[in-house]
Amino acid sequence: MILSGWGNFPRLDACLLRPRNLGDLRLALSRGPLIARGNGRAYGDSAINPAQTIDMRSFNRMCAFDSTSGQLIAEAGVLLADIISVFLPRGWFPAVTPGTKFVTLGGMIAADVHGKNHHCDGSIRNFVDWIEILDGNGNTRKCSREEDPSLFEFTIGGMGLTGVILRAAIRLRPVESGYIAQDLRPAATLSDAIRLFDENPTASYSVAWIDCLARGQKMGRSLVMFGEHATRADLPAERRDKPFSIPARRAKSFPFDAPSFVLNPWSLALFNEAYYRNGRRRAGRSLLDWDAYFYPLDSIHDWNRLYGRKGFAQFQCVLPLASSDLGMRVLLDTISKSGQDSFLAVLKRFGAEGGGLSFPMEGYSLALDFPIHRNTIDLLKRLDSIVLDFGGRFYLAKDARMSADVFSRSEQRRAAFLDTRTKEGWRSHFTSAQSERLGI
Hints:
- The protein is α+β, with helices and mostly antiparallel strands.
- It has 2 domains: 62-176, Uridine Diphospho-n-acetylenolpyruvylglucosamine Reductase, domain 3; 179-239 and 252-407, 3-Layer(aba) Sandwich (Vanillyl-alcohol Oxidase, Chain A, domain 3), CATH 3.40.462.10.
- The chain contains 13 helices and 21 strands.
- Strands 16-12-14-13-19-20-18-21 form an 8-stranded antiparallel beta sheet. Strands 6, 7, 8, 9, 10 and 11 form a 6-stranded antiparallel beta sheet that branches.
- β6 (62-66) and β7 form a beta hairpin.
- The mean pLDDT is 94.
């Protein structure tokens, strides 16, 4: 069948298998190299192997929960949405969450996902206690920081290239309600947005929407959103008896691939202007439910079809703290002058670097979506060069077209990862279209 990531680019002909048990997995492994796939929310080709792509969604049991420590043991195919639906009513929420709840536990670990709280809490690796993996010899191996630490470090953020994640133990965080107390602040420029981040280092959650089409003195104007888990005392009196009950939202869907003319410089400019002005009107403190705050795009099923039949490429980079302000301005100026526009542009502040191939480093991350047009790849190559010039790196879970040379120049840990993959035999058993493209 034809498989793609969430960006619908590239589309590859692949054999998709859906094993039901460990025996089926071992049989597939005996036939040759493979890659595990969760719910298909990586944007590019990291979860596709043309010969054998293994759909792990049948491994979807929650096995045990410790209500004292918040430790959850679950299989790799469990959806984050299901974890929230089961445990939020009990007063527990994921310690780290990406921008969609429709990801699997195994996918979250393989990508070492980060959230709006990386500057405070780091990525999900900080909340993983142990992982159980099917290795290239068909054996199950349990690894942690103390037991088989090399396997543990490279599995988290290793994009499935160290083995098939079977189960894991993660820690949830206690919360008093299902609401987030948000503080929205407009920023007239990119430098103003970065200043707001720097002035609020203890905010639990922080993220900014950027108008990447704004030029001149308005370039980089943003809406910066800070958030805290609301306590019961923060809630209106009528909600305090049911702090985890939120109003039901009817899910919308995008039923068809949008024509290419829908997303154009004029429609995007109008949308961005309206969005920024509306944000300025709503500036200040407000109360949002967890779904609206963390997963606004999840309310529109198949929103990726908005980009049309050719799909889109997401570009996400992180620049070191010292060069973030200037580097981000160069990126935004290049995009603005190109005439190719990003529908979404998100800025985050990252904390300390993690281990393995973990994407974040201390600095600022910019994520952008570009519809695939005639000149899109050329623009992305120019953005690659800018990121390299400023000492940045790229997020593999969002990558769909980076070259091996760019990856090698941006990722100093590549050699250690590749050496370990070769030494452990992972390279001959676990490969993806992305790993082949990047030479790892």
